Automatic annotation (TrEMBL):
Keyword annotations of the record: 4Fe-4S, Coiled coil, Cytoplasm, Iron, Iron-sulfur, Kinase, Membrane, Metal-binding, Transferase, Transmembrane, Transmembrane helix, Two-component regulatory system
Organism placement in taxonomy: Bacteria, Bacillati, Actinomycetota, Actinomycetes, Kitasatosporales
PANTHER family associated with the record: NITRATE/NITRITE SENSOR PROTEIN NARX-RELATED (PTHR24421), SENSORY TRANSDUCTION HISTIDINE KINASE (PTHR24421:SF62)
Record-given protein name: Oxygen sensor histidine kinase NreB
The enzyme's E.C. designation: 2.7.13.3
Gene Ontology CC entries for this record: cytoplasm; membrane
Major subcellular location class: cytoplasm
Keyword Lyase in record: no
Matching InterPro entries: HATPase_C_sf, HATPase_dom, His_kinase_dom, Sensor_HK_TwoCompSys, Sig_transdc_His_kin-like_C, Sig_transdc_His_kin_sub3_dim/P, Sig_transdc_His_kinase_ChrS
Reactions this protein catalyses: ATP + protein L-histidine = ADP + protein N-phospho-L-histidine
Enzyme class label: transferase
Gene: degS_1
C-alpha cells in the first residue's frame, strides 16, 4: 500500500503493527491446527501461507492504494482466501480484526462499512459452522471489534484532516509572511526613492532653477561688451546643465508605475487592475506636463484612496477623475460604499498610508486634501495642487 507522501512515524508504526497482527493470527491458526492434530491441518497451513503471500504481495504492489480499483481487487482476493480458511479453521475468525482496518483504510466509507459488517457476519457464521458453543460473546465480539475499528479509523481520519489543515495554514502563514516582508522591502525602497526625488526637486533643482533665473537677469543687466557678462553666461549655462542633470536624477527615481507612460496611463492601469468594485477613470480639461513630484503625489493618493475603498468601503463602484484647470490640477476618488465619519476616525491602509499621509503629500506641494463622507453615503477624496510656473518645472 503506497502513498504519495511518505508516511509519518506514527502511521508507519501502525502499519507495522497491522502486518504483525495479521501474520501472528495466521501463524496461530496454523500452529494450533498442527498441534491439535486436526484432520484438515494441511489445508489450514496451506491456506494460512497463501493468505500471508497474497497479503504481502498487496503490500508490496504500488497500484494498491486507497480508493483504487487495484485495492478493491486485492481485498477481494484476500477475502476469498480468508473465507476458505474460515471453512477449515475456527481460529481464522480472529483475523477478521486486522481485515476491518484494511477495509476501512482502502475502501471508500460507503463501501467499507458494508464490507466490515459482512466480514463480522462471516466470522460469526464460522463460529456457528464449526459447532462452537453459541454464546452472546460469539455475536458481540466480532460486532464490537468492528465498531471499535470503525470508531478508531474515523477518529484517526478526523485527526489527520485537522493536522493537514493546520499544516496548510502554517504553510500559508509562512508564505504570507515572506510576501509581506518582500512587500515591506519594496515599499521601503519605493518610499526612499520618492523621498530622494522630492528632496532633489525641492532643494537642488529649485535652487539651481533660481540661480539660473538670477544669472539670466544679471546677464541682461550687464552691457554687451562687459567682460563679466561672459563669466555670468558661463555660470548660467553650468547651472542650466546641472539643473538638467538634477531633473534626470528625479526622473530616474520615478515610481515604476510612471516609468513607461503618463500619469493618466498609470491611473488607468490602476483602475483596470483594482480588485473588488468596478472602477472608472476619466480625464477632464486639457492635460499638461506635470513635474515628477506632482505625478508621484497624485498617483500615491489615488492608490491610497482606492485601497481604502477596496478594503473598508464595501463599495459597488468607484470613480477616479483627473482634472486639469487653468491654475491647478485635481484628483477626485469617489465611491458609493458605506462611508464613515471623517471626524470620528481615519481609516488607514496596511503600512500606515491613510488620510494623514495623503494630506502630508498635498501640503508638501502647496496643495490641499479634502474628504467628504458620511455613514451610508459613500466617500469622496479630492486633492488639489497648484500648477507650478513654467520656470519651476
Amino acid at each position: 500500500m503506497d502513498c504519495a507522501r511518505p508516511p509519518a512515524p506514527v502511521t508507519a508504526l501502525l502499519r507495522l503493527c497491522l502486518h504483525a497482527l495479521l501474520g501472528g493470527l495466521l501463524a496461530l491458526a496454523a500452529v494450533r491446527a498442527v498441534g491439535d492434530g486436526a484432520p484438515r491441518a494441511g489445508a489450514v497451513v496451506a491456506l494460512a501461507v497463501l493468505m500471508a503471500v497474497v497479503y504481502a504481495v498487496g503490500v508490496a504492489l504500488r497500484p494498491v492504494r486507497p480508493r483504487t480499483p487495484a485495492a478493491a481487487l486485492w481485498l477481494g482476493a484476500l477475502g476469498v482466501v480468508w473465507l476458505a480458511l474460515l471453512v477449515v479453521s475456527s481460529d481464522a475468525l480472529w483475523t477478521a480484526f486486522p481485515l476491518y482496518f484494511l477495509l476501512l483504510h482502502l475502501l471508500a466509507l460507503r463501501w467499507a462499512l458494508p464490507a466490515v459488517l459482512g466480514t463480522a457476519g462471516a466470522a460469526i457464521a464460522s463460529f456457528v459452522l464449526h459447532g462452537q458453543q453459541v454464546t452472546p460473546g460469539a455475536f458481540i465480539g466480532p460486532l464490537l471489534g468492528a465498531a471499535v475499528a470503525v470508531a478508531t479509523v474515523l477518529g484517526y481520519d478526523a485527526l489527520y484532516r485537522e493536522s493537514e489543515r493546520r499544516r496548510e495554514l502554517i504553510d500559508e502563514l509562512v508564505a504570507t509572511r515572506a510576501e509581506l516582508a518582500e512587500a515591506e522591502r519594496t515599499a521601503g525602497t519605493l518610499a526612499e526613492r520618492e523621498r530622494l526625488a522630492r528632496e532633489i526637486h525641492d532643494t537642488l533643482a529649485q535652487g539651481l532653477s533660481s540661480i539660473q533665473l538670477l544669472l539670466r537677469a544679471a546677464e541682461r543687466a550687464l552691457p554687451a561688451g562687459d567682460p563679466a557678462r561672459a563669466h555670468v553666461e558661463q555660470a548660467r549655462r553650468a547651472a542650466q546643465d546641472n539643473l538638467a542633470e538634477a531633473r534626470r536624477f528625479v526622473k530616474a527615481l520615478t515610481p515604476p508605475d510612471l516609468e513607461h507612460g503618463s500619469l493618466a496611463g498609470a491611473l488607468e492601469r490602476l483602475c483596470a487592475g483594482a480588485p473588488g468594485p468596478a472602477v472608472q477613470f476619466g480625464v477632464s480639461g486639457t492635460p499638461v506636463e506635470l513635474p515628477t513630484p506632482y505625478e508621484v503625489a497624485l498617483l500615491r493618493v489615488a492608490q491610497s484612496a482606492l485601497a481604502n475603498t477596496v478594503q473598508h468601503a464595501a463599495a459597488g463602484r468607484a470613480e477616479i477623475t483627473l482634472s486639469f484647470m487653468d491654475t491647478s490640477v485635481a484628483l477626485d476618488v469617489v465611491d458609493d460604499g458605506r462611508g464613515f465619519d471623517p471626524a470620528a476616525r481615519r481609516p488607514k491602509e496596511p503600512g500606515g498610508f491613510g488620510l494623514p499621509a495623503m494630506r502630508s503629500r498635498a501640503l508638501s506641494l502647496g496643495g490641499t486634501l479634502s474628504v467628504e463622507s458620511a455613514p451610508g453615503q459613500g466617500t469622496a477624496v479630492a486633492i488639489t495642487l497648484p500648477l507650478p510656473v513654467a520656470g519651476a518645472r
